[in-house]
Amino acid sequence: MRLRKKHWARPELEASHIVITDQYAHKGKWSEEFKNNNEIHLELGCGRGGFISEKSKQNLGVNFVGIDLKDEVLVVALRKVIEVRKVEGAQDINVRLMPLNIALIDDVFAQDEISRIYINFCNPWPKERHNKRRLTHTKFLTNYKKFLKPGSEVWFKTDDTELFEDSIEYFKEGGFEILFSTYDLHNSEFKENVVTEYEAKFTDLGMKTMFLQAKLK
Ligand SMILES: C[S@@+](CC[C@H](N)C(=O)[O-])C[C@H]1O[C@@H](n2cnc3c(N)ncnc32)[C@H](O)[C@@H]1O
Asked: Which ligand 1 atom lies nearest to the CA of residue 133?
């Protein structure tokens, strides 16, 4: 995603109480940040925030952390959360946003702190020499396992068949069991889908959404 630099993005993020900019200060203490012991679910590469704002609204008993590398998209996500969740002034909302390179994520969450991960339409990195950058690659799964509770799930969506099929292998190699998978989510029996911005765009272009749920053994 090519984005024009928004110089106002960082100050706007830093001014919000739902954006975490001291990312490494909360490791092992995320329940204190949310002021409850509810499960915490992550969305990796949350983009413009359509998914996390809707998912967190539908699941008020779960805490959500949306992570993205780019301030320019995270600030759009922040505005989306504020709009959908009507958060003005509210301190107890069940969602936080965090600028972070996911490669560093195991420095941010402690063992057993996270119960689910959502990965929606991550970059497919099609060249073989770049495969290790895929957010579902075994290298990343090894990192996620450092903070996922046993029995946790990863829910993964993509429009890219090669990434989807390779990811099934990554999950199996990484000690996950595939609970459900489909090449056509929108025509499957799975009914609790929340559509993301990329998903809407690809669907309009006639592309199918592939989806799997993998469970850590
Ligand atoms: C293709 S977009 C998908 C956005 C959203 N999930 C959706 O489905 O509409 C991928 C997002 O992942 C973010 N991203 C890619 N690599 C990342 C990394 N290593 N750490 C954090 N975010 C990353 C990008 O900035 C981008 O917003």
From this structure: 19
How many angstroms separate the alpha carbon of residue 67 from the centre of ligand 1? Answer: 8
User: What three-state secondary structure class fits 149?
Assistant: strand
Q: How far is the CA of 102 from the centre of ligand 1 (A)?
A: 10
Q: What is the pLDDT of residues 26-66, one digit of tens each?
A: 999 999 999 999 999 999 999 999 999 999 999 999 999 99
For residue 120, report the distance from its CA to the centre of ligand 1, in Å.
8
pLDDT value at 202 more than 70: yes
Give residue 112 CA to ligand 1 midpoint distance, Å.
24
Q: What atom of ligand 1 comes closest to residue 157's alpha carbon?
A: 8
| Class of residue 133 by CB neighbours under 10 A (exposed 0-12, middle 13-18, buried 19+) | middle
Tell me if 102 CB under 6 Å of ligand 1: yes
Helices (H), the chain: 9-14, 30-34, 50-58, 71-85, 138-144, 161-173, 197-204
pLDDT at 131 over 80: yes
Burial 206-216 (b: 16+ CB within 10 A, else e): eeebbbbbbbb
Give the three-state DSSP class for 179.
strand
Predicted confidence (pLDDT) at residue 189 exceeds the cutoff of 80: yes
198: Cβ below 6 Å to ligand 1? Answer: yes
